[in-house]
Design brief:
alpha+beta, elongated
């Protein structure tokens, strides 16, 4: 829309400048005919026809310069929109490729197991168990995609959220309290409640904690730390697991992306995408730091002033 406005304005200014120039030439010619021998004095002598022509030329130049500037701005905006469209198309193709890959694996497994079930009825119980597992994987993937799509349009339901209580509920839902060390700031002052969508924030910290548990050795503990700093709530989920390769860190929050060292762990590749979308809708940001073989720190920072996000 802005491109169209710039383009129309540049055309209008260009034609206006040309009209001013034509009118000025006509006026200068008329002055020449009417006052052929008259001289004006402005501290110096000047021909009135020349004065009229110079004024018209200057006015036309102003209009034409403005037209050129707007046309250049419209061209730059058009290039930017084209680059954005190309980037979105590239991302769409990457998403479709990942979706195709994620759907192809369970569908292939289901087809193979159906063939086995038809060929050998003695192993039907194990085959049915595998079929159910693959069907559950497809159901999880579709639920995640639907949830991710809904996050873009669902209005946030703000309420006061006590972060300590919320994190206690996360630990209760994960049912492994002996593997999670929780540290919520209480001194020199306790963390104040934050305004947010409680259901979505619960999803954020449950996903982060679940990821940390899945990719860490079963005998190790993860840490969840919450603190209040610089007008924001900061929650860190820390593990000592396998870590993420440096070249994959910028990609881990993209839809359906799964790291090269996570193929042995069940997942849809949507968890961090959902987390990042929720955090950003609360006006915050998600940061992932990791070192292969040492562990990962996922940090969610949520501002207390979220009036601009509602």
């Amino acid at each position: 829309m802005r491109f169209g406005i710039f383009y129309l304005m540049s055309r209008w200014l260009g034609w206006t400048g040309l009209g001013v120039l034509i009118v000025g030439v006509a006026a200068a010619w008329a002055v020449r005919l009417m006052l052929p021998a008259t001289l004006l004095r402005f501290g110096f002598e000047a021909d009135p026809a020349s004065v009229a022509l110079v004024i018209a030329l200057l006015a036309a130049l102003v209009f034409l310069a403005a037209a050129v500037a707007l046309r250049w701005q419209a061209s730059r905006l058009q290039r930017a929109l084209a680059a954005q469209a190309a980037a979105e198309e590239t991302e769409r193709r990457r998403f479709i490729q990942r979706l195709d890959h994620e759907l192809k694996n369970p569908l292939t497994a289901i087809q193979v197991q159906l063939d086995n079930l038809q060929a050998n009825e003695h192993n039907s119980k194990e085959t049915i168990v595998e079929l159910r597992a693959q069907a559950d994987r497809l159901a999880q993937l579709t639920r995640g995609l639907r949830r991710l799509a809904d996050l873009g349009t669902r209005p946030l339901e703000f309420e006061r959220v006590e972060i300590g209580e919320l994190l206690d509920e996360v630990i209760e839902l994960l049912q492994v309290p002996d593997r999670i060390a929780l540290d919520v700031q209480k001194v020199p002052w306790p963390i104040p409640p934050i305004e947010g969508d409680r259901e979505l924030l619960l999803m954020v910290f449950r996903n982060l904690a679940d990821n940390a548990l899945k990719y860490s050795p079963p005998e190790t503990r993860i840490q969840i730390r919450a603190r209040h700093t610089s007008g924001a709530l900061v929650v860190e989920v820390i593990d000592t697991g396998r870590g993420i390769p440096p070249d994959e860190l910028p990609l881990v929050a993209e839809e359906l992306y799964r790291g090269s060292n996570t193929r042995d762990v069940a997942g849809s590749g949507l968890g961090l995408s959902i987390v990042q979308r929720i955090v950003e809708r609360h006006g915050g940001r998600l940061e992932i730091r990791s070192r292969p073989g040492q562990g990962t720190i996922a940090t969610a920072q949520l501002p207390y002033d979220q009036t601009a996000t509602r």
